[in-house]
UniProtKB/TrEMBL annotation:
Domain named Glyoxalase-like: residues: 6-192
Record-linked SUPFAM superfamilies: Glyoxalase/Bleomycin resistance protein/Dihydroxybiphenyl dioxygenase
Protein name per UniProt: VOC family protein
Source lineage: Bacteria, Bacillati, Bacillota, Bacilli, Bacillales
Transmembrane region(s): none
């Protein structure tokens, strides 16, 4: 299958600027992203190489509620009133046409590709295209796919300035996903995206049994509750969704609880 990598976590936020400020206080560089005029949204971003966190907020509700060609914006409009929380993940591809063919062959209905763009603060026009899998009322939304308008090497060079963090050299190790049942999600996602499965283990801190699917730039770590704890609480509040990221660094451990999500940093 076309090679996929973790691209970014979309964190639905009523105040992306506050998220940025909170991350800066924890030694993680975050920046104002920009506005998506066609969607009525804006964002703040924290980069870790090519992968990043996007805090996505609504700037113009009257525009956002009329968007009918972008399932991510529709999900944001529906879910943000429930409270701030991570909502969906994006996987990166460098061959959208081939990916479309492969997913269609697997019998999936697709929505897109949808073109996207925004102006950066420096006036540069960023462009990309997004592809969604059309689903009937999913419990855990499947990832959407993104292809950027520039080569990875060009983007990596441009993003270097945003990827250096006072908290240390941060690498995304795991994308955290709260689910009711590992045996339901792991086989499906593994077969859909041709991902290798790791061994299940217990994370006592979160009160959950967890299992990885290996993916470049950020493994997918699915966690199902085995007792009361963060994962159970998150499921009770938001249902099956991503709930944060786990980083490795060369300095120290810290845990950041921010706008309904968890960002864990562990020393290598």
């Amino acid at each position: 299958m076309t090679s996929l990598s973790f691209d970014h976590l979309v964190h639905f936020s009523s105040d992306p600027s506050l998220a940025k400020y909170t991350m800066l206080q924890h030694g993680i560089q975050a920046i104002e992203g920009g506005k998506h005029e066609n969607w009525g949204t804006y964002n703040a971003l924290a980069y870790f190489g090519l992968s990043y966190i996007e805090w996505l907020g609504i700037q113009n509700r009257s525009v956002a509620i009329q968007v009918d060609d972008n399932p991510l914006i529709q999900q944001l409009v529906t879910e943000l009133p429930l409270g701030d929380h991570p909502g969906r993940i994006a996987l990166r591809t460098n061959n959208m046409d081939q990916l479309v063919a492969e997913l269609t062959e697997k019998g999936l209905k697709l929505h897109g590709p949808v073109k996207g763009s925004r102006l950066t603060d420096s006036g540069e026009l960023l462009q990309w295209s997004m592809l969604f899998i059309a689903e009937e009322q999913p419990t855990l939304p499947l990832p959407f796919f993104i292809q950027w308008g520039e080569e990875d090497a060009v983007r990596r060079e441009k993003l270097k300035v945003h990827s250096s963090h006072p908290a240390g050299s941060l690498q995304i190790k795991d994308v955290l996903l709260a689910v009711e049942d590992l045996d339901d999600k792991i086989p499906r996602w593994s077969s859909l995206f041709d991902l290798q499965v790791g061994e299940a283990f217990i994370n006592e801190k979160w009160g959950a049994k967890c299992q990885r699917l290996y993916l470049p730039h950020g493994n997918l770590l699915f966690c199902a509750p085995v007792e009361d704890g963060f994962v159970q609480d998150f499921l009770d509040e938001f249902g099956e969704r991503p709930f944060g990221l786990q980083f490795e660094n060369d300095r120290q451990d810290q845990s950041i609880l921010l706008q309904g999500g968890m960002y864990e940093i562990t020393k290598e």
